[in-house]
Amino acid sequence: MPFDLEREIEKLESVRSGRDPKPPTHRQLDIILRDERLVPILYWTEAYTPQHFVGRANAVSASIRKRVVAALQAGEVLTNYKGLAACRICKKLLGSSDLTDGKHVWPYKAEHYITEHQVWVPGLENLVG
Ligand SMILES: [Zn+2]
Question: What is the whole-number distance in angstroms between the Cα of residue 98 and the centre of ligand 1?
Answer without folding.
Answer: 17
